[in-house]
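hiii, so i know i said id send this last week but things got crazy w the move. better late than never?? heres the sequnce for the chain we talked about at the cafe, plus the structure i predicted for it. fair warning i was half asleep when i ran it
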Amino acid sequence: MLEWLKNLRQHLLTGVSYAIPFVACGGILIAAALAFAPPGESNAPDPSKVPILQFILTVGVASFNLLLPILSMYIAYSVAGRPGLVAGAIGGVLCNDLNGLFAGAHLVDPDRGAIPLGFLGALLSGLFAGYIVELIKRLPMHRLIKPIMPILIIPVVSSLAVALAMVLVIGPPIADLMGWLTEQLELMGTGNQVLLGAVLGAMIAFDMGGPVNKVAFFFGAAMIKEGNYQVMGACAAAICTPPLGMGLATVIGRKLWTSEQRESGYAALGMGMIGITEGAIPFAAADPLRVIPCIMFGSVVASTIAMLGGVGNHAPHGGPIVLPVIDNKVMYVVAIAAGTIVTALAINMLKTKVAESQPEDSGP
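okay and structure toks below
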């Protein structure tokens, strides 16, 4: 069992190492485009008004859209070698929007809208693809068929298996969960601000751009139309806390992180400044059991402080970049700073304990 867990960790780290450049490239380009963009509707940055900025933004988004396929693909590659690449990549692509890709195949409910499975879905698809390929490779085959197995049979069979699993097994429960969470948030309303703020913060950080994150974000965006800006204010503070917190952790605890992780930390800081929660994905994918609780804790602190401080956000976005359209700017900055510091201290404390118990390996 211990050996299997070590192998699993190595598979995740392999996927993360290949995905990091895509996160950094996409994050930096998106940050540059939004940082220099003139204000548009709701005073949020609007790069579409400047063609060169729109071009930079488009390239950055393209790089970001490759994050999940690359992560899933190389996790599968780590498990099963080159035959796992195709199925892993297809599983990762489906994680961007499962419903949209299969809307015409009558396998999904068109009324559910987009179903983003996020980075957790990419982890599952990569592992599933890898182990499916390993299983197929072990099946007895005629000697005439063996030469075409890795280039034809394995990619086709494993890709169909992964796609079916995503559509029929993984996708529907996630779609149902998104619907249930939306209903619960609507029922909760703003009656208990502390509880609502804490729930929103935890949801935003949990899967960093995945389905749970999207439910909280779109709920906050919908409240803007209702004239309630505090819900989006809490979300905005929570959105940037995971990447800022992880970036800060690599700065103040340099010895606890590898050089590659420290580079990812600098990129995460940049993405946090413009409200891209996905900047924390490389850390969470490599060490989910420690990172996810820490970033959730930090985001809960940030969103709760923002809610109690009467922070309002008039734009459906988050991070320091939306400061011009924030009500009660001081408390917004305080909320983000508090959540960031809590995240950094929490993850570094956990990593310090692990390093002390395993002095021969101070890595994550």
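btw Confidence is low (pLDDT under 50) at residues 359-364. thought thatd interest u
miss u guys!!
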